[in-house]
Design brief:
globular, Jelly Rolls, 199 residues, 2 helices
C-alpha cells in the first residue's frame, strides 16, 4: 500500500477534506525535537515512525500512559474554524495530542484522540480514536505531537514500540449561518409532515 493509498483511506474513512494537490504533495516528516518541528499547511498530511523517536527534557505530560517516543509538527489556523486530525497505521494507533503554545515548557493540551476511561470493575482503561477535532481561531498556532502508549496493543516488539504512521490535518470554516445571528430566513416552502402512531 502506497502513502497515497493510505491517504485515500484517511479521506474516505475519517472525513478529511484534502485536495488532490495535497494528496499528490510530499508528506511532511515529523521531528524528534520540538524546536525543529516542521510547519504543516492548513490542509496537509505528514508521516512518522515512532520506533526510534525519543523524548526531551521539559516535554509536557500527555494523557494515556504516553511512552515518551514523540514526533512533533506545528500548524497555524488560517481563519476561525475547526481543525480535524486523523491518523492511519498498520496495527496500532498512535496518540495524537494538539497543544496550545509555542514554548515546550508552556504547552497546554487542547485536544487528544486518547480517552482515559474509569471503570469500577476494570479500573483505568485507555481508548484511542482515529481522529480528533478542535475549534480554532485565526492565527492560532498549535503544536501536534504523536506518541505511543504501552497501555494498548500494537507496535513492534524489541523496537521501543510504535511504528510508522500517516497523519492528516484538514481545516474547515464554519458556514455563514452557523450562529443564530447569521440565521437565514426560509420562505415560500410548503411543508407536509405525516406520522403514524401505533401502540
Amino acid at each position: 500500500m502506497t502513502t497515497r493509498d493510505v491517504l485515500a483511506c484517511l479521506v474516505l474513512a475519517w472525513g478529511l477534506k484534502l485536495s488532490e494537490g495535497v494528496l499528490a504533495a510530499d508528506a511532511v516528516e515529523g521531528s524528534d525535537a520540538f524546536a525543529s518541528r516542521p510547519l504543516l499547511g492548513a490542509d496537509a498530511f505528514a508521516t512518522g515512525d515512532l520506533r526510534a523517536a525519543t523524548s526531551e527534557p521539559g516535554e509536557p505530560s500527555l494523557p494515556g500512559y504516553a511512552r515518551g517516543q514523540t514526533l512533533w509538527w506545528r500548524w497555524v489556523a488560517p481563519a476561525d474554524g475547526r481543525a480535524r486530525v486523523a491518523v492511519s497505521t498498520n496495527g496500532f494507533t498512535p496518540m495524537v495530542v494538539l497543544l496550545r503554545g509555542q514554548e515546550l515548557a508552556a504547552l497546554q493540551p487542547a485536544a487528544s484522540n486518547t480517552v482515559v476511561l474509569q471503570s469500577l470493575c476494570f479500573g483505568e482503561r485507555i481508548s484511542v480514536r482515529p481522529a480528533v477535532t478542535l475549534d480554532v481561531e485565526a492565527g492560532e498556532e498549535l503544536a501536534l505531537v504523536a506518541d505511543w502508549t504501552e497501555a494498548l496493543p500494537g507496535g513492534e516488539p524489541g523496537t521501543g514500540g510504535g511504528g510508522p504512521f500517516v497523519l492528516g490535518i484538514s481545516f474547515a470554516s464554519p458556514p455563514a449561518n452557523d450562529d443564530l445571528a447569521g440565521a437565514e430566513s426560509l420562505s415560500g416552502l410548503a411543508l407536509t409532515a405525516r406520522a403514524r402512531l401505533s401502540a
